[in-house]
């Protein structure tokens, strides 16, 4: 690499932006991207993973240089005309300028300088190559194969960061000297940090606003530093299970050992690719440190899990679920949804920094991989307008949003149940959903109506909004039912029965609680919820201890289950009209980690005379 060209990422163009004045898209360096962040925005944020990767880097650079450490500092940064009113970003970038050279022979940016032999060609640096060799069937950029032209430096830098963040898991080439290598291969590699998680980004009017809205203030943790501030770069043959000291280390950790090998003109046709460092206690650290992560607590309380943020069939964001990080379920379930950026943005509105009528717009993204994580098969993403931020900041209207969230989810599950019962032989019956555009219009109209209420609305006014919303939602569900192929007198009778079943959900929208849901569940509250549930179980069992049997003959008491704000035994739920499966199938689903309400209301895909599906078969075996 002696005599290799230089490419300064601080000054040379490589980050696509567009100006708020409508001058079109152009590329800028890191320095201009931050110092002029009040005049432009990232061009591809909200369109692809590349935009998210660049935002992640800009967040890390800004936080390391001048990130606010408390609410007062954040408020001052929000009010400032630029992101760098005191020159702290400029001073920081001057200090570390030598670490931002893409081709530096000793410390190439985001790379491992110890790798001396390339093992991949230009076509494999294309982001679409994450889809495997079969991706060439559908992507024209991969048609040339080995004849793929070299990458220009800016494109190579972006593709390098995309590969670091979204790389597939499984088997990787072993780096020279890697003690874990077997036959020149390393096993058990994890999916890249952005690919393995669901991301929620709060979108601002400019890049300055977007950066601040997604960066909750916090002091730098002891020992925390971005990768470019460390004395030495990552070694080639040693992979480390690292416990990140803070947000900066987590955001810049080298999840892969990569190295670009440019030609004399600075273009890249060859590069090296190996496994990198792994995060020990993966979920716990991302949950604690990464504000753009969207996740929820697992059922056992030991970690976090991916939320079902997207419709499994249309792959559109389930907007009614995205406000859940701001509240807890009505049944006081201690499992929480988490989004540091969303909670932070609403907190800024409560402090009066954001105008109440500012639209709270978010972008949600989730990369999809095959079963083994070895091939990327898709990217679900979408922008969602959650309504004016003041609706979520004020307690009365936030309580309505929390209520509508859970009633919407229950009603849409009821639509699937009604469709499956009416036409059990129609495969798409349990996938039926109302028109997505109409649903968004309904939510937009409702949030605007909530925003127009007085600052202290009466319970009757709020309940009226909920009831109108419920009626319109059930009407949209009825329109969706009309899309199914009902034919003949018997078919119309089934359609009428399904409509009657749907109408009962309107009544659920009349039960708006008069007390707010807690915005946070403390450990004390969680223990209180558990104690209350245990007390209810004891009362129902006549004061007997769990496992002591029931009745004169003994026996195992049926486990309790909380759903729709009610607590019953699994046997009692199996007799409830909302349950569409047997108690054995219900028990099997719960063991396999199903959401309780989904386990109760999702029909088994079994036609008369057909073999049972996996869930039913497991349930029969367990019984």
Automatic annotation (TrEMBL):
Q: Where is this region: Disordered?
A: 218-240, 535-560, 592-623
| Ranges annotated as biased composition (Acidic residues) | 613-623
> Which Pfam families does the UniProt record give?
CRISPR_Cse1
Listed Basic and acidic residues bias regions: 227-240
Which residues fall in a compositionally biased region of kind Gly residues? 544-556
* Name listed for the protein in its UniProt record: Type I-E CRISPR-associated protein Cse1/CasA
Q: Which organism is it from?
A: Saccharothrix violaceirubra
């Amino acid at each position: 690499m002696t005599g290799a060209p230089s490419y300064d990422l601080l000054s040379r163009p490589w980050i696509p932006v567009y100006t708020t004045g409508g001058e079109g898209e152009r590329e800028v360096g890191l320095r201009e991207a931050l110092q002029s962040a009040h005049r432009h925005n990232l061009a591809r944020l909200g369109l692809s993973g590349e935009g998210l990767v660049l935002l992640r880097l800009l967040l890390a650079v800004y936080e390391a240089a001048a990130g606010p450490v408390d609410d007062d500092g954040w408020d001052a940064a929000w009010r400032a005309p630029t992101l760098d009113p005191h020159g702290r970003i400029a001073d920081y970038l001057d200090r570390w300028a030598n670490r931002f050279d893409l081709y530096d022979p000793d410390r190439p940016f985001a790379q491992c300088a110890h790798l001396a032999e390339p093992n991949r060609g230009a076509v494999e640096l294309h982001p679409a190559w994450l889809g495997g060799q079969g991706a060439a069937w559908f992507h024209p950029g991969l048609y040339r194969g080995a004849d793929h032209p070299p990458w220009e430096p800016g494109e190579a830098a972006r593709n390098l960061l995309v590969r670091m963040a979204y790389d597939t898991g499984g088997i990787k080439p072993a780096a020279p000297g890697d003690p874990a290598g077997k036959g020149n291969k390393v096993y058990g590699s994890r999916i890249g940090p952005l690919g393995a998680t669901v991301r929620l980004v709060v979108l601002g009017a400019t890049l300055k606003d977007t950066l601040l809205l997604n960066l909750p203030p916090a002091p730098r943790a002891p020992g925390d530093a971005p990768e470019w501030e460390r004395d030495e770069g990552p070694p080639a043959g040693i992979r480390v299970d690292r416990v990140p000291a803070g947000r900066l280390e987590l955001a810049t950790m080298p999840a892969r050992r990569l190295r670009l090998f440019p030609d004399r003109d600075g273009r890249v046709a060859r590069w090296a690719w190996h496994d990198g460092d792994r995060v020990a206690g993966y979920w716990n650290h991302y949950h604690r440190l990464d504000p753009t992560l969207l996740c929820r607590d697992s059922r056992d309380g030991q970690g976090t899990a991916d939320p079902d943020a997207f419709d499994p069939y249309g792959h559109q964001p389930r907007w009614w679920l995205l406000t859940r990080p701001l509240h807890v379920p009505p049944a006081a379930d201690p499992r929480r949804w988490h989004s540091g950026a969303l909670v932070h943005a609403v907190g800024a509105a409560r402090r009066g920094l954001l105008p109440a009528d500012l639209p709270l717009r978010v972008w949600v993204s989730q990369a999809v991989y095959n079963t083994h994580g070895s091939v990327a098969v898709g990217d679900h993403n979408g922008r969602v307008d959650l309504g004016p931020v003041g609706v979520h900041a004020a307690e009365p209207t936030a309580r309505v949003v929390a209520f509508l969230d859970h009633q919407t989810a229950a009603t849409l599950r009821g639509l699937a149940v009604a469709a499956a019962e009416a036409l059990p032989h129609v495969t798409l019956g349990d996938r039926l959903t109302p028109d997505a555009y109409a649903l968004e219009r309904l939510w937009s109209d409702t949030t605007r109506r909530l925003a127009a209420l007085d600052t202290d609305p009466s319970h009757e006014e709020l309940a009226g909004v909920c009831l109108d919303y419920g009626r319109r939602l059930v009407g949209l569900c009825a329109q969706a039912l009309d899309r199914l192929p009902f034919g003949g007198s018997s078919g119309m009778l089934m359609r009428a029965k399904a409509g009657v079943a749907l109408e009962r959900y309107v009544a659920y929208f009349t039960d708006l609680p008069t007390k707010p849901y807690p915005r946070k569940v403390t450990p004390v509250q969680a223990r209180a919820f558990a104690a209350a549930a245990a007390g209810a179980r004891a009362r129902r069992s006549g004061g007997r201890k769990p496992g002591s049997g029931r009745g004169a003959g003994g026996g195992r008491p049926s486990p309790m289950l909380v759903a729709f704000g009610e607590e019953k035994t699994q046997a009692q739920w199996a007799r409830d009209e909302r349950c569409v499966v047997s108690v054995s199938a219900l028990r099997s689903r719960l063991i396999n980690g199903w959401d309780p309400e989904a386990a109760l209301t999702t029909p088994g895909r079994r036609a008369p005379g057909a073999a049972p599906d996996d869930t039913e078969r497991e349930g029969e075996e367990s019984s």
